[in-house]
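Narrative of accomplishments. A recurring question from our advisory board has been how the design workflow behaves on a single, concrete structure rather than in aggregate. To address it, we present the structure tokens for one chain from the evaluation set, followed by the sequence designed for it. No filtering or post-editing was applied between the two.
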């Protein structure tokens, strides 16, 4: 603004310097002409001064507008600067949050990988145990077949292995008189041999199943006879063979799990049997399961 005013003053000085020199009048007529020339110069200077003042006013208005725009731009610049600062902080916070989430995800991933590796090791270990146990049961089954070969050949006894389950199927005629639950002493060695084989697997349960053909005449149902025979076998294994009673289970299936039709004498003879089954203990830990859920 000061520079502009100085320029205008310079213009006025220059204009005053460029006026026509006033000659020294020699007479009245010349004096009048000089005054006329002076008047014309003054009017010209006044006109030029008015124009300059008008231009100055225009420049001042423009300057004021520009100053307003400058203030507005400065305010916008400040807002943009503040916004950039906020965005930078948000960006930094988002980055830190993302990095934290990524680190957490990586840690969880590594933990899961370790857990999976551990589970695989456990699975392999259990698989190996199952293979080894099946091999041991197969060896026990082979030994039983050798020991009881005579009765197996006669068709009175059968030894079956299914993976880690061992089943000994004994015809009732070897162990009991018709309709009787009492064990025959002469055939107790068969049960003793089975007990020796089962004793090698203390973690398993011995399930004794009583099966009949039809309802016997002096029993109220086939369930009763099957149950009485299963109980007597269990008592023999507990009392005479010293099998842990917590490993023993007595069951009766009556006439309802036949191997052959009960319409023929041969079929009924095949259906009258006692089965000793070596199975996993957890299948019979019902009370333990109930107690664990109650806690």
């Amino acid at each position: 603004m000061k520079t502009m005013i100085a320029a205008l003053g310079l213009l006025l000085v220059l204009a005053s310097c460029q006026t026509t020199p006033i000659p020294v009048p020699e007479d009245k007529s010349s004096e009048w002409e000089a005054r006329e020339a002076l008047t014309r110069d003054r009017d010209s200077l006044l006109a030029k001064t008015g124009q300059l003042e008008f231009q100055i006013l225009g420049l001042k208005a423009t300057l004021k507008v520009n100053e307003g725009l400058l203030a507005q731009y400065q305010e916008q610049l400040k807002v943009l600067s503040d916004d950039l600062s906020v965005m930078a902080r948000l960006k930094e916070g988002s980055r830190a949050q993302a990095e934290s989430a990524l680190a957490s995800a990586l840690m969880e991933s590594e933990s899961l990988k370790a857990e999976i590796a551990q589970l695989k090791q456990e699975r392999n270990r259990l698989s190996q145990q199952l293979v080894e146990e099946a091999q041991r049961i197969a060896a026990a089954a082979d030994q039983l077949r050798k020991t009881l070969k005579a009765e197996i050949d006669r068709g009175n006894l059968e030894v079956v292995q299914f993976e880690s389950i061992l089943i000994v199927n004994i015809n009732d005629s070897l162990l009991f008189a018709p309709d009787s639950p009492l064990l025959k002493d002469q055939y107790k060695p068969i049960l003793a041999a089975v007990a020796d084989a089962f004793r090698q697997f203390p973690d398993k349960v011995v399930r004794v199943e009583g099966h009949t053909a039809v309802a016997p005449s002096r029993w109220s149902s086939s369930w009763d006879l099957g149950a009485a025979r299963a109980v007597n076998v269990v008592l023999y294994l507990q009392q005479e063979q010293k099998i842990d009673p917590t490993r023993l289970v007595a069951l009766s299936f009556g006439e309802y799990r036949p191997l052959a039709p009960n319409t023929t004498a041969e079929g009924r003879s095949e259906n009258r049997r006692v089965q000793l089954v070596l199975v996993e203990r957890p299948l019979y830990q019902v009370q333990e399961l109930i107690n664990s859920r109650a806690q």
